[in-house]
Amino acid sequence: MDHHLFKESPFKTLISFHKLIEALEKIATTNVDYRSNYAKALLKEIEPFPEFRTGIEDLNLISENETLINYLLADLFPTALTQNEIKAATIPFQNFTFNYSERFKKILQNAGRTFDMTIRDFDENQFYIMNCILILNTIYGQHFDFNRPLFYDIPDANGIMKHYRILYNADFMEIIPTDKAIKLSPEDIDLLMDNYDNIDLWKEKFPSESWILKGFGIVSLFDASIESAVSNLKSNLLKSEKHQTDNSNNFETIFRSIFKIPDLKVGFIIYNEEDEKFVKPPYDDKKIDSFILHDMQEVDCKNALFGCSLENILEQNKPFVISNVEKFAKISENEKLGEHFLKLNIKSCILAPVIKNGKLLGIIELVSAKPRELNSINVNNLDLILPYVVDTLERYKNDMQHQIEAIIQREYTAIHPSVYWKFRREALKYFQTNNPNKDYIFKEIVFKEVYPLYGQIDIKGSSNHRNETVKEDLKNQLASLIQIFENQNSNTNLVLLEQRKFELQSLYDQLEFPLKADTEQQIQLYIEKEIHPILRNTKTNELGETLEHNYFESLDEKTGMFYHARKKFDNAMSIVNKKLASILDKKQVEAQNIFPHYYERFKTDGVEHNLYIGSSITPNKDFDSMYLHNLRLWQLQTLCEMELEHHQLKSSLPYELDVTSLILVFSSAISIRFRMDEKRFDVDGTYNARYEVVKKRIDKANIKGTKERITEKEKITIVYSHNNEETEYLNYIKFLQFKKVLEPTIEQFEVEELQGVSGLRAIRVKVINDNKEQTPKNFSYQDLLDELN
C-alpha cells in the first residue's frame, strides 16, 4: 500500500465503504439465503469499525484490517479474475492504493521494494486542478473534458520499463461541500475555463479542504507498453534536434519496451546517396552511434563490408536479421562480419532499411548480447516504429541540406546582414513573379553615395620570410641527402653516386643566391625522379639505413619535401591572421551599433577590411556625417588594439613576425555594385575606380624622395589627400595620445607618386605597447568632441 500523498487538495478525503455497506444491508433483507447469510455475517464482522461507514482518516486502519476489507470488496474484485486483472482500490489521482489484485501485487513485487509508484508527468498543481474539475463536472453539471491519458511507468523483473494506462471508477464516491466551499457563478466557471494554468485562481475558487471526498475509487490498469513507447518515440523524434533527448539511454529504453529485451541497443547509419556510402550520424558520443561502422566514419556500400555485402538491403529493401551471430559467423562469407559483431558482444541483431518513396535514407541497427533475442518474428515490431523514424530521418536530411547550403553561403558567398535586405527584396520579387516560360532578369544590387573606409594590418616582409624558410628547408633536405650519399658502400655504383652527390652539392650552392620562381619545383622534381629511386634500391650499412630512415621520416606526407622552417612560418602566419581577424570581427559587431554599414574582411599576408557606410545601405535610418566620423575613430582604435595584441603575441610565435598597419582615407562618396560573376561587391564606375587603384598600390609605396616604405612595424600609417582629412585625423591622434594609446611623436610626409595617382600625404604614429596589461578602451566621436570643448 502506497502512502505517498499530495499534501494540498480541495478535498478532505474520507475513505469510506458506506455505499457498499448500504448495498449489503439491502441484500441482508432479501429471501436469498446464501446471499442474505453472507451479507449478515460480513456486516457483523465490520460492526466494530464504524469508521468503515463514517469515513477513515487514519490510513493505518486500512492496513490493519486488510483481510476484512478484502472480504468487503470481494464482489468488486472477483477471485476468478485476480490473476488477470490489474486492479486496486484507491483515491483518484493520489498515489494511494490498497486491496490489490494478485496480478497487480506481482507487478509491484517485480518492480522492487524501492520502487515509488507515481503517475507520469503529474505534479501537485495538476492534481489540485483535476480534483477541482471533478467538482465542476459532478456538482455544477459541467462537461470539462480532460482526456489526457494517465500512466504508471513500472519496471518488470528484467528491468524493462512497462507502461500502464490508468482508468478510474468513481461509482463508490460522493462529493460533499463544507461551510468553506465557495458557490461559483457562471462567470467564475468561465474564468476558470480560460485559465487552466492559473493555480492561484483555482485555489481561490476551491480553497483547500473546502469539500469532502467520501468513499473510494477503483483503479484499473492495462498494459499499454508498446503504444506508450511508440508515442514517446514519436514525441522525441518530432522534437527539434536541440530539444531531443541528449543521450541514447532514453531512446533505447523506448525500444526495449517495444521489443521486451532488457539489453537491447540501438545504432544507426545514414545512406549518402551522392557518394554511395554509409556514414555515421554526426552526433556526439552521448547520442546514437553505429555498430556496423564502430570505429570507422564511413564505408562504401557497394563494396563487401567485412566480407559480407549489404547489397541485400540496398536491392531488396528488407531487414537483414541475424538471430544467432555465432552460428552466422561459421559460414565462410559471413566470417568477418560475424567476428566483428562478436567482438562487440553482439549475439543477435536486426539491420533494417529506412526507406521513403523508394529511396534508402539509412539503416537502423538493433543488437542484443543474447542469441535469438532478435529474430524474424519480432522484427515485425519495427512496423510500429519505422514510419516515425522515416519522417524524422527525412526531416534530418532536409535540415542538413539547408545547413550545408547556409554554411556554403556563409563561408563562400557570404552576404553581410547590412545589405541582406536588398538581396532578399529582389529574391522575393523573383519568387512572386517567376514564370517558368520566361527568364526573370534580376536587377543589379547597387548602393550609391556610400563612404568607404579601408584598413589593413600586414605581415612585414612576408614574401622574404617565406623565401628564406623555403631555402632553409631545401638546404636541410639537400644536406641530409649529401650525408646519406657520403655514407654509401663502395661496392655500389660509385660513378653514379658521385655524379648525384655532385649534382646535389650544385643545387645546394645555388641556394646561396636569391630564390628564383621555379627553383623549389626543379629541386623537388630532381629529388623525386633521380634521388629517391636510388635510395630505395641501393643497399647500405646500418648507419646508412638509420640516416635514410630518419630522412624519409622527416618528409612531409603531402609534398614529399622538408617542411620544418616553412611550417613554423605558416603556423605563425595562421596564428597572427586568426587572432587579428577575430579581434576585428568582434569589434565589428560593436561598430554596427554606431550605424549599420557593410563590412568585409580578407585574410592574405595579414588582414584587410572594407567598410561602406551611407543612407542607401540603411534607408530606414537618417544618416549623418557624425556616424562616418565615429566609424573612422573606431577603425583607428581597432587597429591600435590589433597592433597591441600582435606585440603581446609576438614572443610566443613559432616564427617571429612583425606587422605594419595602414588606413586609407577617402572622403568622396562612391557607389558599390554587387558583381554577379564574382559574387562580391566592387566599386562602380570609372570615377570611383581611383579608390581601388590607390588601395592596391599604397601599401608598397615609399616616402617621397626616399627608398623608405610609408609603413613601419608597430606604427599606424594614415594616407589621405585633403587638408580637412588631415585635420580630422590629427584630432583623433591627439585624443588617443591623451588617452595613452598612441605615442607623442607624429610623423608627416608626402607619398611618392603612384601610377595614375599623385598628391597623397600620410601621417605615421606609433602605438604605445610597453604596458603589457594595457587594453585599449573604445572612445566615441562624442568623447573626442567633449575633450576638445
Question: Which secondary structure elements does this structure contain, and how are they paired or packed?
Answer:
Elements (H helix, E strand, L loop, with lengths): L10 E5 L2 H11 L4 H14 L4 H4 L5 H5 L1 H7 L13 E5 L6 E2 L3 H10 L12 H16 L11 E5 L5 E9 L3 E5 L8 H8 L5 H7 L5 E5 L1 E7 L1 H14 L9 H12 L5 E8 L4 E3 L18 E3 L10 H6 L3 E3 L2 H5 L5 H9 L4 E9 L2 E10 L13 H30 L5 H17 L12 E14 L2 H25 L7 H17 L8 H19 L4 H13 L10 H27 L6 E7 L1 E8 L11 H26 L8 E7 L4 E6 L4 E4 L5 H9 L17 E6 L2 H16 L3 E9 L10 E7 L13 H8 L1
Parallel strand pairs: 1-7, 18-21
Antiparallel strand pairs: 2-3, 2-8, 4-5, 5-8, 6-7, 9-10, 9-14, 10-11, 12-13, 13-14, 15-17, 15-18, 15-19, 16-17, 19-20, 21-23, 22-23
Helix pairs in contact: 1-2, 10-11, 10-15, 17-18, 17-20, 17-21, 21-22, 22-24
